[in-house]
Amino acid sequence: MATHGGTKTRLTASVWIVALVAFGVFDVALTAAAVGTGVAAEAHPLVREGIRQFGLLVLPVWKGILLAAFYVLYRATPRPYDVGVPLGLAIVGVGVGIWNVAVVVFAIA
User: Fold this and answer.
1) DSSP of 4-70, one letter per residue?
2) Would you call 16 exposed, middle or buried from its count of C-beta atoms within 10 A (0-12, 13-18, 19+)?
3) Please, which contacts does 53-60 make with residues 24 or more away whose CB atoms are closer than 8 Å?
4) What are the pLDDT digits (tens) for 89-104?
5) Is the pLDDT of residue 80 over 60?
6) Is residue 79 within 8 Å of residue 2, measured between CB atoms?
7) 25 pLDDT band (50/70/90 cuts)?
8) How far apart are the first and last CA of the chain?
9) Contact 23, 96 (CB under 8 A)
10) Which residues of 80-109 are buried (b: 16+ CB within 10 A; e: fewer)?
């Protein structure tokens, strides 16, 4: 098994890619589009207030902070259990993405 100081396994790297795309990029893009066009509102109260005060730029900043915190958790988790961190993010990211798409579809239907 590889250590944190060594090379990552392909599985872990692949799971991180899915997590970054689903939890990071896709969620931020869809939320920005939905909130920016008025089709939906941000559900998280802190993020909603941040958007109200500073605009949609809050979204990638917020996700960046969360992803950095989860990466720290990943680094602190011993192998082989560390893959659970990006796996959890990937599952949540895909689930939230599906939910957001449903909200937008039903809002414009």
Assistant:
1) TTSPPPHHHHHHHHHHIIIIIIIHHHHHHHHHHTTS----SHHHHHHHHHH-TTHHHHHHHHHHHHH
2) buried
3) 56/32, 59/28, 59/31, 59/32, 60/28
4) 999 999 999 988 998 8
5) yes
6) yes
7) very high
8) 50
9) yes
10) eebbebbbebbeebbebbeebeebbeeeee
State which amino acid sits at residue 103: V
Burial of 2 (0-12, 13-18, 19+ CB in 10 A): exposed
What single DSSP character describes residue 73?
H
37/68 Cα distance (integer angstroms): 28
The rounded distance, in Å, linking the Cα atoms of 67 and 57 is 16
The pTM score is 0.80
